[in-house]
Amino acid sequence: MAGAMTVDGGMVRIDRPMPWVGRLLSLPLLAASGYLLWNVALGLRQDFSSFGRLADDLVPVLVFTGLGLLVGIPGLILLTFRYFVVLNETLRQIVITSQFGPLNIRRHRNLADYHFISITDDYDADLTTYDVNLCGNKGTEPISLMSFTRREEADKLAGEIGRVLKLPARDYVGTEPDSDDA
């Protein structure tokens, strides 16, 4: 959890690490994409060095280029995916960022809409995960900050965030979820 949260004055940045399995799954996709695009480059080199005709190889070049990009883009996304939440106490603003390489998708929320930090579990008897969420009133979508396999780590993160943002931390582990009707 050491690299999960950084505090700088009134700003808290929480990084959700990408599981290593996701990064590992990107390697076969990138290898397949590299193979397809390498064959496109070899074909184009042959066509432009007077050993072939581009008109004869145009369809395979376009198909291999399309397949290479179709397989390579998800591999690049898996490899470079980052998700982090920045809580700015001074501006009373929350910025949720999903980053895929150079592409940033940001969502802004008002910190005044969120009133407490909750710790919940997933009711799995074999492998329980404890989620730390920033919650507000009914109708306010909670923001998932981090998931842990040990309850002590979740309590520690919720306490630190609560101390910085002056919000109470509520432990809902082992309680029944609210019905959607209420």
Give a short overview.
By secondary structure, this protein is of the alpha+beta class. The chain has helices spanning 20-48, 54-80, 151-165, and strands at 5-8, 11-16, 81-88, 93-100, 103-110, 114-121, 130-136, 143-148, 169-171. The strands form 2 sheets. Strands 1-2-3-4-5 form a 5-stranded antiparallel β-sheet.
Write the layout of secondary structure elements.
Elements: E1 5-8, E2 11-16, H1 20-48, H2 54-80, E3 81-88, E4 93-100, E5 103-110, E6 114-121, E7 130-136, E8 143-148, H3 151-165, E9 169-171
Parallel strand pairs: 6-9
Antiparallel strand pairs: 1-2, 2-3, 3-4, 4-5, 6-7, 7-8
Transmembrane segments: 20-38, 58-85
Keywords: Membrane, Transmembrane, Transmembrane helix
Protein name: DUF304 domain-containing protein
- Residues in helices, as a percent range: 25-40%
Mean pLDDT: 85
Overall morphology: elongated
Q: Termini, distance in Å? A: 36 Å
Describe the structure.
With 182 residues, the chain is of the alpha+beta class. It has two domains: 95 residues, no CATH class; 64 residues, Signal recognition particle alu RNA binding heterodimer, srp9/1 (2-Layer Sandwich), CATH 3.30.720. It has a five-stranded antiparallel beta sheet. This is DUF304 domain-containing protein. Keywords: Membrane, Transmembrane, Transmembrane helix.
